[in-house]
Structure prediction request, 876 residues.
Amino acid sequence: MAGLAGTAGTAGTAGRWTRPAGGWLRTETVIVVLVAVLAAVIAFSGTTPWPVALAGLAAILLIPGDLLLRGLGLAVFDGWLRLYLATCAGLLLATLLGLLLNTVLPVVGVAHPLAPSRVLPALVLLTVGMYCLVARRTGWRLPELSELWALPAVQRLRRVRPGGVRGGPGRRGGDASTVFRFAVPTALPVVAALGAISLDNGGPNGPTVLMLLATVLLFVFLAVRANGLSSSYCLYAVFCVGLAFELMTSLRGWYATGHDIQREYYVFQVTLGNWRWNIADFRDPYNACLSITVLPTMLKGLLNVPAASIFKIYYQFLFALMPVAACLLGRRLADNRVGVLAAAYFVAFPTFFSDMSMLNRQEIAFLFQGGMILLLVHRPGAARHRRALFLVLGLGTVLSHYSTTFLMLGQFLLAWVFLVLWRRLGRRFGERACLDAGSGWRSTLARARGRRTGTRGRPVAGTSGPANAAAGGGVEPATVRLTRIDHGAPSAAAVSGRGWRRVFSGWEDSRILTLSAVVLLAVLTVFWTGPATHTANNMTEVVRQAAQSLVHGGDSERSSDTRSSIVSGGAVDPQVQVDQFARYAYDNRLPNVTYFPRDVVDRYPLRYAEDEFTPPTTIGRALSSVGLDPRALNGALRGGSAVVLQLLVLLGVIALVLRWPIWMRVSREYAALCAASLIYLCVLVVVPSLSAEYGLLRAFQQSLIVLALPAVLGPMVATGFLRRGPRLVAAAALPVVFLISSTGLLAATTGSYIPQLHLANDGDYYESFYPHDADVSALKWMARQEALANGTPPPASGSSAETLAVLGQFQLPAKNRAAPALVPVNGYVYLDYANLAKARAIGMLDSTAVRYRYPIAFLDSNKNLVYDAGEAAVYR
Prediction:
């Protein structure tokens, strides 16, 4: 993206842009022809091949997105940062364009406003209009074909070796090494896809295990060599790892597989069936998320791909940029090594690879929030332009996902409160001390850097001042960077001699996170969830329950995610949750439906379903023979990793606020946001209804966007009494160990542990959320029978009505219909693979999943088996 920087046109007498000499239309003509060929291939293909569809997706998002960045005057010189921000801007432009067409065209009599025949011309007009506007306003133009070779980005590519090692005299590498460096990360997503397909066909998990092992080795290599590699190579490797981790779960199953994705796919199909979004068709908070209604409908029509692949494949390519955002943050505030380790923590957290591919609305919202956080630490352009993009990306978050928006607003508001107090204390103590000391921390740092680089007594370029602020989107040379993790601990004089002065002075403060910005985003949120969609009832109920739990206490609705929290106060007895679910089922009986009497249902009490474990492998049996229990080993490592990660984050945030690592370039707004995120997580744990509604693990994954860097600093703080070498080993080893444990690589090696969806055709997620062909057939049959019983025409085979009927049964709330207390006397009851093969079932206690032994004897005694497909059945 940075390579298309272009040049300015000729300025007219009134500052107006005029056509430069040289026939500049040739470049635009080439681009128009390429886009037209791409559109023709998509239009005339039965199903667009995925490489062509990816190229189309890039054109749809990146071209308008990059034009928006240029229109805002943001000079982003870092290629990956520009790619990330342009992707977010393109997503928002596409969403707003779809919303505009969906609102305006029906007024003039267009019945299908989101059909590709309507969207494509509008997208072309939008892109051409933005290009003309940007060219006239800023004087920017596309470079001529003859000028491409002289662009700075092309020259940088010529100087940087393909293998990722910074070029220079005397640094040569073999072609085989170059190919290997790129081949390893590139192969990871391919092997991950092959592993998922192998499991879907009943094959082994060998490809997935191989991919995980290669990922661990790649992170070890990057942790050791990151500061000797180009930033672009490190970011590319992180992107490939993120994509591989998403695909190994999203490609499981031939249908939409997962928990929330079933309801997401349902509202997507509601919009796609009419090529129009209407909140009245299904008034639900899911349907208010344009990221899973308007946006995928537009992409489905423009790319001509299967509907399920939008969520299973193409959204995962987009979300793979999130680890890149974590790496960009670490690299900006520290260096390549810190950035890579921060990305390792982000992808190693179980929610990233186990759940995020099932939360597509949240994936898009995370992308927008990640862009907002990047703008707090990067400085590409004037502050007012960054504030404008900050608000634009905030609007994208509001339109994408409600819960992510609420959590983000809470973190931003708390961070703003910290900033106000921080700045006031700084004006009273820090700034005066800084003036009295003659900016002592800067002089101490300059002397230390002078000893290392041989520049003592001479100013070092790129350390401060307007030039460095303007180039905030770029990367300084290694010789002038302030942010080397291997600089070692600061001197005692630098730390203790200044005392608290470091806490209040010397911070980068972009003043992007202001009260007006938070209030404006809150107003947009209230408007969208209130007058626009009328879907705020759920949030009102959550606030009421939160206030009630704070006043009266109790944790009956606490999420099971809090069991690993260091402030949770203990785990919840699973049988107690099953008993609560049984009472919940009785309380939620509909008044106009005839159910079985309570005395009949109570003959079949519900019992908690114990966890199932994989059989031990040869290595696992060998460990058992020497007294090491693989089950206990894996459990201790999983539980210990969760506790250690929380402690590392806590230590890292304290270190950031106290500015213990004085070699870091630290943003005051970023440090305040880290502290706010940590406190907000504690609030989620303490207030039971909040953790049950949102889920602590999802909240922690969202907070890891900013807390991954403190997690890297944590082991450095804990081992501060050691020398530089052991500190680096501790900082690099912990995320790798966390990765080995959380991804199931160790469990796959030893066996005797809970199976995970990406590694086995077994386990809780497989039993509860993996649709089989037999499930689909049974549900289609039941939908036809229910329609006939109600006197309505049955849905046609392959119609959208039939698809919606099937999807409705796969959603989490529908799982409760099989609970004995909710089985109607005269209605149909559908049992899936887990109910029949293992007598296990899942129930939803508010937002908490409860697993219990399903009493099939209850149906055998009181209902008739009317359909049996082996792995699925229907009773009446």
